[in-house]
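Q: My labmate handed me this sequence with no annotations at all. I'd like to see what the chain might look like in three dimensions before we decide whether it's worth expressing. Could you predict it?
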Amino acid sequence: MARPVGATEERTTAPSIRTLGIDPGVSGAVACIDPSHGYPRIIFHDLPRTTRYNGRNAIDPEATLRLLNRLTPADGHNTYIGLEAIHAMPGNGSITVFSQGHSMGTLETLLGLMTTVKPWLQIRYIDPGQWKRHFLLAKATKEQARHTALDLFGSPPSLQRKRDHNRAEAALIALFVKDMAEDHAGS
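A: Here is what I predict for the chain of 187 residues:
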């Protein structure tokens, strides 16, 4: 299991790695593990939303692009973005599945566009089972995932409410991607 962010046992050989984790969906979130201040800190944002032509909420592409650009440095190397690769589940209604697909398509398009301007960005599609197994959360609820994030990130105020589970999952995805990148850099 991953060590807490900010733990004193930092690897001295690993380069400083900035990672973003994205929990897609209309109520999704992005978390950024930012090493630029000499120690890793975690930054949380809910994905910006807008109302579509049909009256339903959707990810706001323009505001999301501005957010992602702010979180990824212009001169960056060692920047990894983990996007949870969601998929339709049995029992999900057609509106839910369409909404999830619309969110994924929006995020994939924005990330693809960003890599044309910032080619050093490393995009990773993360299967939900991968990061959940990494944190021993394979059969866990969203609330259990939130408590794991609270433990790993030192109980930040941004994760205190039950409805902050999307922020927590984004943070766990970011930490999973960070662990993967450091393991790859160390091998």
